[in-house]
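Our working data are protein records whose layout never changes between entries. An example says more than a description, so a record of this kind follows.
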Amino acid sequence: MFTTFMFATGIENSIPTINNGRTRIDEMEKCGHYKHWRTDFDLLRELDINVLRYGPPLHKTFIGPGRYDWSFADVTFGEILRRDIIPIVDLCHFGVPDWIGNFQNPDFPELFASYARDFARRFPWVQLYTPINEMFICAQFSALYGWWNEQLTTDASFVTALKHIVKANILAMEQILKIRPEAIFVQSESTEYFHAENPAAIRPAEMMNSKRFLSLDLNYGRRVDSEMYEFLLDNGMTRDEYHFFLDRSALRHHCIMGNDYYITNEHRVQANGITRSAGDVFGYDEITRQYYDRYRLPVMHTETNLMQGPAGDEAVNWLWKQWANVLRIRNTGVPVVGFTWYSLTDQVDWDTALRYENNYVCPLGLYDLDRNIRPVGRAYRQLIRDWRDVLPAQSVCLVVPVSLPSECDEGPVRRRREVARELRESEEEAELHQSTLHEAAR
C-alpha cells in the first residue's frame, strides 16, 4: 500500500506529573479511553479515518528496567491490527514512569530506547512512530517554565531536559529500525514564531526564533545557529554530546517532519522578553514553510484544534482555515502528506496546559466525552470524503510507503524491508566513520 495522504486523528495520552511529582495527569483516564477504547475505535470508522496517533500509557506499561505490563497494549493493539487501522505510535507523551523520575535523569535515553526496542519486537507490524511527542515543548514546560515533571526554571535544566529527550528519541529510532528497517518516524513538534512588539524587542524575539528550532536541529543532525551553540555549551551540553547529534544526521532520511499548529503558537515579544499570544498572524502555511526551508523533509500537520464556543461553529471555521493552509503550501511545492485534528474526543484541563487538576472539560474533540459527535467531527468527516479522491489526482508521485498492518508479511512489504535494512546498514557504517573522524580530530 502506498498512501497519497493521511487523514488522521489521535487519542490524547499525555501523562505529566504536577505538584512536585505527587499528582499524575493521565489524559487517557480523564477522557475515558481506558473504559471506552472499543467505542473510540468504532468512531474512526464512522469518520472514515484509518490513521490514528496512538500509544500505550508509558507509566503503566514500562514498570521497571526490562519489565513491562503489556496487558492494555496487547488488547488495544490487537484490536487495531484486527481493524487494519494504521497507528502512528506515540511512545512518550510529556511524562515518564515514577521510577525514572523526570527528564533530568541521564539514564532516561538508554532506558527509553530499550522500551522502544521491546515494543517494536512485540508489535512488529507497526511501521509509523512518534517516539517522543513535542520534544521542545516537553523540555520547555518541564524544565524552563516549571509547570510539569521536574518543575525547574533555569536554562541549564532546560538544556539538560532537551538533550536527554532528543537523545532518547534518536536512540529509540535506531532501536526500532533494527526491528522494522522501513519504519517511518513522524516528529510531532510545535511550530512557533515570535513577533517583536517594538525595536527594543527585536533581539529577544530573534533569540526565541532561533531557540524554537533546537529540538529538530539536534534530532536531524543539523548544525544549530551560532548563538544557540553558545547557549547549549554555556548551559551544560558538552562538545561530545553535541557531536552525538551531528553524527546521526542520516536518521532524517527515515523522517516526516510533523508540525503542530494552534492559535497559541505565535507570540508577541516585549523588550523584557515577556511573551503573550499573538493569534494566527502568519498562519500555518508561512510558519511551516520556514521549517520546511530549514529541514527539507516531507511534512505532516500532526496537531490542531480549537474549542467549540457559544456559536457552535468556531472549531469548524478553524478546521476550514487549517485545511486551506495545508492546500496552500501543498500547491506551492511543499510535500505535505497528512493532516490531523487532535484529538478524537474532548480533553481535560488543557485550558491551563495541565498545570492544575481542575477536571475542566475542554470542547476540543471531534466527539464529546459521551462520544457524541461535535459539529467539527461532522465537518471533518465531510472534508475527508470531499478530498480523499481529489488529492491523489493532484500528484501521483507524492506518496508515502506505508503498509497496512495486515500487509506486514506480504512479499512486496518484505522486499521493501530488506532494501531498507541494507540502506540502514550503510547509514550505520557512515555514522561510525563520521564518529571516528570526530574522535581523531579531538
Summary: The CA atoms of residues 117 and 175 lie 5 Å apart. The two ends are 47 Å apart (CA to CA). The chain has one domain: 6-441.
